[in-house]
Amino acid sequence: MDEWVDVLDSDGRYTGQKILKSEAHEKGLFHPTVHIWFFSEKGDVLLQQRAEIKKTFPLFWDVSVAGHVSAGETIEKSAIREVKEEIGLYITDKELVPVGVFKSIQQHHSNLLDCEFHHTFICLLIPPLEALVKQMEEVEALQLMPLKVWEKDLFSATPTLSYVPHEEAYYKEVISAIKKRL
Fold this sequence. Notes:
Layout: E1 4-8, E2 14-20, H1 21-27, E3 31-39, E4 44-50, E5 61-62, E6 65-68, H2 75-87, E7 97-109, E8 112-124, E9 139-146, H3 147-154, H4 168-181
Parallel strand pairs: 3-8
Antiparallel strand pairs: 1-2, 3-6, 4-5, 4-9, 7-8
C-alpha cells in the first residue's frame, strides 16, 4: 500500500517535504520508520517472518513489528498504529522503551533504494503468542525465541533462520537494551 511519508535529509532531519513511499524508494530519499522489538519476562524475543508477498526480504525473519511513519504522524503514534495493525496488540506510548535511531541504506534492486531512519523501541510482551493476530499482508509467522539462542544464531556463520540484514551494531544495541530490562 502506498502512503505519504515525510522526507528526511541524510542526517535524519525533517525537510518539510512529503512524498509517496514508492517515490521515496525509487529516488532513494530518506524517510522515518519504526521498529518495535517485543520481549517476554522469560527472556524470549518475538520474531516476525515477513510475508511471502513482501517486495523486500520475503519470508526472512525480522523485528517483531516495523513500518513506515506516515507524513505528519509522530513516531510514537506510528509505533502504536503499526503494532495494532501487524499483530493486533494495543499498547501505549508509555510501554515503548527507546533504543535509538539507526540510519539504514539498502539497495534492493535498480529502482528500490531504501533509505530510512529506524526509530527503534523495545516493549514487554504481556499476552501469550497465541493471542496475537497476524496481518496477513505483512506477517507470515510469529515465533518466540530465547534471547540467548537468538543472539547466538544471529551472529553465527551458519544461522538456522534467514534474518533481514541489519547492521551488527543495530542488533547489538537491541540485544543490550532487552538484557537491561530482564
